[in-house]
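Work Package 3 (structural annotation) set out to generate three-dimensional models for the target panel prioritized at the project kickoff. During this period the team completed the workflow that converts sequence records into discrete structure tokens, so that structures can be stored uniformly alongside our sequence database. As a representative example, we reproduce one entry of 207 residues exactly as it appears in the project archive.
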Amino acid sequence: MLQDTLENALQELAEQDADVARLLPQIGPPEPRQRDKGFATLFATIASQQISTDAARAIMGRIHTQLPTLNANTVAAIDGQALRDAGLSWRKVEYAKGLADAELSGSFNADALEAMNDADAIAAITALRGFGRWSAEIYLMFSLGRGDIFPADDLALRVALGRLKSLAERPTPAQSRRMVEHWAPRRSAGALFLWHYYLNNQRGAPA
């Protein structure tokens, strides 16, 4: 999502939601986020699960040293111990090999996701072992540029939404999805804004 597109979407959200209208002038719009699409990004998603950004970056650096070309063929061909030595857990090695096998067998096609609607793309990704709904939604938002995604399983997103709406308790994923239904079809912009709000609030910005 380009910056001007993001800002326009947030202005439209502000017209629909008084809380967004109140907060947007205080913290400003977030920066757009974009990631590459395809097999390598899905592989990196596995590598980064449940570890810090710095740790994930270090692991991917070692993997790129072993596999300068990161695709289904090279991942299928490399010995699992080599991926383990690079820092992947054995469970993540299993997921990575499964991703490669699915791509090579034709049961999954990373390049075909772009032509699918949101629901079908999420279903295709979550059919893979090691990929939950959150991972699929993040891929759709940042790699495919889909404009109406709200990853409600994200803890920071729900914390920020609860603060935005002055709730006494953090909303559940289901409650969060219901609360932002009126943001459609701009829920990706709303999610970016909530992450931005969360980070600013952590630094002491206005609540």
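The longest helix spans residues 90-105.
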